[in-house]
């Protein structure tokens, strides 16, 4: 038994439009993935203050006020 497969101009148009739409969607997906990979700190910045707020102050290392003042003096 033989099958004759022919594509009408309407079927070609639908196939081309579908292929174009697929390419556009894949491109946009790549842009979104690239944007998320480019800014990993922005994704992790949300929970960081809550974690830092839960750390007791007696566990943190002591701050040296002379180091902070010398750093601000050197930037001026």
Task: Describe this protein's structure.
With 76 residues, this protein is an all-alpha fold. It has a domain at 8-38. It has four helices and no strands. It starts with 8 loop residues before the first helix and ends with a helix. The relative contact order is 0.05.
Key structural traits:
about 70% helix
Largest sheet descriptor: none
What integer is the average pLDDT?
76
Large-scale geometry: rod-shaped
Q: What is the CA-based Rg, rounded?
A: 29 Å
Q: Strand-and-helix sequence, N→C?
A: HHHH
Structural class determined from secondary elements: mainly alpha
The separation of the N and C termini measures: 88 Å
Summarize the structure.
It is built from 4 helices and no strands. It has 76 residues and is mainly alpha-helical.
Topology of this structure?
Elements: H1 9-38, H2 40-44, H3 48-53, H4 65-75
């Amino acid at each position: 038994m033989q099958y004759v497969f022919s594509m009408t101009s309407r079927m070609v148009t639908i196939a081309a439009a579908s292929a174009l739409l697929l390419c556009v969607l894949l491109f946009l997906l790549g842009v979104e993935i690239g944007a998320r990979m480019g800014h990993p700190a922005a994704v992790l910045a949300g929970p960081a203050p809550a974690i830092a707020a839960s750390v007791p102050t007696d566990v943190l290392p002591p701050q040296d006020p002379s180091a902070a003042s010398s750093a601000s003096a050197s930037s001026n």
